[in-house]
Amino acid sequence: MPRFAFAPPHPRHALRVALSHHVANGLSAALGLLLISGAVHLWLGALAAAAASVGVVVCIPPDQPAPRRGKLRQLLPAALLGLPLFLGTRLLHGDALQLGLLLLPATFIAFLAAAWGKRGIPLSVSIMFAMLFAMAMPAHDGIAPVLASSLHFALGAGLYLLWATLANALLGGRYRVQLLADTLLALSELMRLQAQQFLPPESDERHRAPLIGRLLREQAALTDQLQGARNILLESPRTPRRQQLAAMLLQVLEMRDHLLACELDLDTLKSRPGHAPVLGVLHEVLQTLAADIAQLADKLLYGRTPPPFTSLRPLLATLHWAETEPAGQAPSAAMLARGLANRVGNINDEVVRLVALARGEQAPDLAGVRASWQLFVSPTAWSWRPFAGLWRWDAPPLRHAIRATLAVGSAYALAQVLPWVAHDYWILLTIVVVLRGSLAQTLERRNSRVAGTLLGCVIAGALLALQPSSWLLLLAVTLAQALAHAFAVRRYLVTAVAATVLGLLQAHMLHAGASPVFGVPERIADTLIGVAIAWACSYVLPSWERHQIPALVARTLGAQARHARVALGLGQLQAIDNEPELAWRLARREAYDSLSALVQATQRSLAEPRAVRPPLAPLGLLLAHSYQLLAQLTAVKSMLLLRRDRLQPEQIRQPLQQAALSIEQALQHAGGAVEEAAEAAPGPVLLPDPFESDLSPWLLRRLELARRLAGQLRQDADRVLAPQEPARPE
Fold first, then answer.
1. Where are the alpha helices (DSSP H) in 511-642?
2. What is the phi-psi region of residue 686: left when phi exceeds 0, alpha when psi lies from -120 to 50, beta otherwise?
3. From CA 152, how far away is CA 385, in angstroms rounded?
4. How far is residue 591's CA from residue 556's CA, in Å, rounded to a whole number?
5. Nearest to 28 by CA among 57, 71, 63
């Protein structure tokens, strides 16, 4: 019997988080802060150490696990841009008007860094931190103290660049293991959700839509996780250990394809009687395989060799196929059930190979990527190309930069006239960490920021009331920095608490302990003001997701067309060399990446006002049909690569070429091309038993279904892109 297992207990989940690359990277950053600040404290004193720690804090946001090549380039802009802004802010600190004239254009430029995408957002935060922590320092008469603090800032930033580059190289091996383990855990969760689709339908359909939505979200999350893992694991895989981990990652990519193919024919089988017991066993098999993958991830995190894996193929071979209908032109339910079980068996086979790779019992095969790994890794160079198309009124990064500048300017002006002693830098800091490019992200950070500030103020206030020594404060700042950096992506509430403690203790140290106690009500009031301004400004020149949807839909259709052309091109039934395999892997990656971006945009739109949301119903169909098309092409690819000896080349070569052309025409041309593609689809064909004779008729059936799906996908896209009537506000 299989080793049936289910969701891990909560303590195991907490241990996985503690052993993740997020926490390791946070601890590395905090240790760098502690060593640099401590060394400067011993050498130059407490005030110099406080200024040097600001230089470290400014360089920390972009410090994420990265390939060795380009790591320094990843961090350098934060230091180079932060130093002159820190110096300028310190020089103008005594003049509110001139400081405002520096603050506003610098904010605009800082938030334009969002044009670089995900890696540009930390740079924006770093630039703003340089100015805001300079504002937190006490004003000094004369230029000498300002130059001294700026030199200390530069010292801290420079030392941290060296530290982060060295730490990334030393932790590279651990990062690879952790990123692979996180990817395996994401795959395991997706398999658990996929297994739920094998269960009998609910008495009503209300539970089906949430499951499909969760599957789409997990697919998008796995796609993002895979790209982060590619960046590290596929970098120059030349040593045996790197090749082992890279080969395991490639196995995960294959498993994702086979898992997606398990959706094929599932609805048909669930609608026909007699196969519920078989589907129940397949559900348990998938759950077991998911548990085995999660166990493998845990063993990787613990640094242990995983136990041997016992194949479940013998169990699948004992399943009884109910012949509930006679064989005819349409495939019988028994044939569909056997095909579905075989696809689950393919996942089982991939798990066998995955565990064998992890145990060192199978040699890795990286012929497709070893020589061209750069194509799979995200670029590390800071190119000016993203700014070429930025200077148009509807560009989201430009609008976000204008919103941020308006928010920061309004908050700065308000702070000058508040009746209490407002900490203008604290209000601005709240805006910087709360205001995001989309309303959904802003709302999420708004709530977490308020709750985190309340708790952080209590913790920092209690600590400062004890009048701790400078060394104890440095340790507290180090711990707060570790938590803030580690959980910035995973759980922002923890980051908000830690960042509040960090900011308050950092400001206290910058004032050289002038006052051990601060006004908690004032800090809370400043936070609420900052949150309110960020929330209000998120509606100024909004970049609603419906304006981004057309470009994302076009990208998705183009990626699907290219993937179909390249995937079906593998069907020439000749020896597959590295070049076509590489082209197919790149096309597959873009297909999944484009769908991930569209899923995330659709999710973000749910937080927007109903009147400006994109058409969600056709968007959901478009996403579902896109993944179904990928599943059909995956099934075809599996036949071409794994069942080549049971295909008739002369019978399928021309249909493969015609199907690729038909799919491409349907996806790239609206209206008539869709109808033509649907009309050209052949009718039902006689399907023999796929386990006893020629597979060519089954491949032709998959091609027909793929062509029809391409037509449906084009129709979904036309409905999404059609002019929408404005919704009535409720």
1. 520-537, 545-569, 578-605, 616-642
2. beta
3. 34
4. 7
5. 63
In eight-state DSSP terms, residue 20 is S
pLDDT tens digits along 418-459: 776 556 777 888 888 888 877 777 777 777 777 887 788 888
Q: For 12-16, what is the mean pLDDT?
A: 83
CA-angle at 551, arms to 559 and 717, nearest 5° = 70
Q: What is the pLDDT of residues 263-286, one digit of tens each?
A: 887 777 777 766 777 888 888 999
Q: Please give the full DSSP string across 213-258, using - where no structure is assigned.
A: HHHHHHHHHHHHHHHHHHHHHTSS--SHHHHHHHHHHHHHHHHHHH
Give per-residue pLDDT as tens, 200-229.
765 344 455 567 778 888 888 888 888 888
Q: How far apart are CA 126 and CA 536, in angstroms?
A: 24
**CA 431 to CA 411: how far, in whole Å?**
9
Whether 508 contacts 473, CB under 8 Å? yes
Q: Is the pLDDT of residue 716 over 60?
A: yes
Work out the end-to-end distance of the chain between its first and last CA atoms, rounded to an integer number of angstroms.
Answer: 55
Going 309 to 314 to 315 to 317, the CA torsion angle's sign is positive
Query: What CA–CA distance (Å, rounded) separates 257 from 630?
Result: 8
The tens digit of pLDDT for each residue in 531-568 reads: 889 888 888 888 788 888 898 999 999 999 998 888 88
- Taking only Cα atoms into account, the Rg of the chain, rounded to an integer number of angstroms, comes to 28
| 400 neighbors 111 (Cβ within 8 angstroms) | yes
Tell me the CA distances in angstroms from 564 to 375, 596, 630, 647, 696, one per residue in order: 20, 18, 8, 20, 18
Which is nearest to 568 in space by CA: 553, 588, 592, 540? 588
Cα 393 from Cα 477, distance rounded (Å): 42
Cβ-based neighbour number of residue 111 at 10 Å: 30
Q: At what angle do helices 545-569 and 616-642 cross, to 10 degrees?
A: 20
* Residue-level pLDDT at 730: 41
Q: What is the pLDDT of residue 642?
A: 63
What is the C-alpha to C-alpha distance for residues 632 and 708, in angstroms, rounded to an integer?
11
Token pair in block for residue 535: 């929330």
- Residue 210's CB is within 10 A of a number of other CB atoms, namely 9
- Residue burial 382-421, b: 16+ Cβ < 10 Å; e: rest: beeebeeeeeeeebbbbbbbbbbbbbbbbbbeebeeeeee
Distance CA 654, CA 46 (A): 77
Indicate the SS3 state at residue 290. Answer: helix
- 8 A C-beta contact, residue 477 and residue 506: yes
Q: How confident is the model at residue 322 (pLDDT cuts 50, 70, 90)?
A: low
Helix (H) or strand (E) holding 459: helix 439-465
Return d(Cα 225, Cα 188) in angstroms, integer.
Answer: 13
Question: Which residues lie closer than 8 Å to 79 by C-beta, 6 or more apart?
Answer: 55, 58, 59, 154, 157, 158, 160, 161
Mean pLDDT for the chain overall: 80
Cβ-contact 696, 639 below 8 angstroms: no
- Whether the per-residue pLDDT at 134 is higher than 80: the answer is yes
Q: How far apart are CA 307 and CA 701, in angstroms?
A: 40
Q: Between residues 29 and 423, which one has the greater pLDDT?
A: 29
For the chain, what percentages of helix, strand and coil (3-state, to nearest 5) are there? 75, 0, 25
The better pLDDT of the pair 505, 90 is held by 90
pLDDT digits (tens, 9 = 90+) for 65-89: 888 888 888 899 999 999 999 999 9
**What's the gap between Cα 141 and its chain centre?**
48
Q: Sorting pLDDT into bands at 50, 70 and 90, what band is 179?
A: very high
